[in-house]
Amino acid sequence: MVDGKPISLGLWDTAGQEDYDRLRPLSYPQTDVFLLCFSLINPASFDNIRSKWYPEIDHHAPNIPIILVGTKLDLKEEYDRRDDAEKNGDKHAFDNASKEVRELKEKKRQRPIEFREGLACAREIGAYKYLVCSALTQSNLKGVFDEAIR
Fold first, then answer.
1. Which CATH architecture has domain 35-149?
2. How far is it, in rounded angstroms, from Cα 90 to Cα 78?
3. Residues 141, 131: contact at Cβ < 8 Å?
4. Ramachandran region, residue 137 (left: φ > 0; alpha: ψ -120 to 50; beta: rest)
5. Are the CB atoms for 30 and 47 separated by under 8 Å?
6. 138 — alpha (psi -120 to 50), left (phi > 0) or beta?
7. How far apart are CA 55 and CA 68, in angstroms?
C-alpha cells in the first residue's frame, strides 16, 4: 500500500550484456517509470548511466519518467568511515574491509560517487528524482519503490 492505496508493482531487471542490446528495448513501451540504477562504489557503473543507459532510454522511450538510484549505500558508508579513519592516522583502516570496498581502495584515483555527483547526473539526464539505497540494510529501499509508484 502506498498513500493508502493497494498497488501492484512489476519489476523487470533488463540484462546489460551486449547480447541483449536489440531485445532489451522491446520491453520499454509498456514502462511507466525507469529505475536507472548504478553502484555508488563502482565509478564505471555510474559512467554507464550517461554513456549507455540514458541514451538508450532516451532513444526508445523519451517521455517516460526516470528515477536515478544509487545502490550499495551500505558499502559507500563503509568506505567513507574507513577513509576518515585512515585520514586520522589509522594505517589499518581498510585491512578487514569488505571485498568491494578493498577493491575500490586499491584502484588509484577511484572513489565512491558522492551524493552531489548523483544529483548533478540526475539533473543532466532530466531524472524526476535522485535517491540512494541499500538492499542489504534495506536503507531507503521502500522509499525508492514508493517514489516509483507515485
1. 3-Layer(aba) Sandwich (3.40)
2. 15
3. no
4. alpha
5. no
6. left
7. 14
- Cα Rg of the chain, angstroms: 17
Q: Who contacts 43 (Cβ-Cβ below 8 Å, separation ≥6)?
A: 110, 111, 113
pTM of this prediction exceeds 0.90: no
- Could you report the per-residue pLDDT of 44-96, keeping only the tens digit for each? 999 999 999 999 999 998 999 999 999 999 999 999 999 999 999 998 888 88
Residue 4 has φ and ψ, to the nearest 5°, of 80, 5
> How many whole angstroms separate alpha carbon 150 and alpha carbon 136?
24
**11-55 pLDDT, tens digit each:** 877 766 666 777 778 778 888 899 999 999 999 999 999 999 999
Decide if 80 contacts 87 (C-beta within 8 A): no
Domain segments of the chain as ranges: 35-149
Contact 73, 132 (CB under 8 A): yes
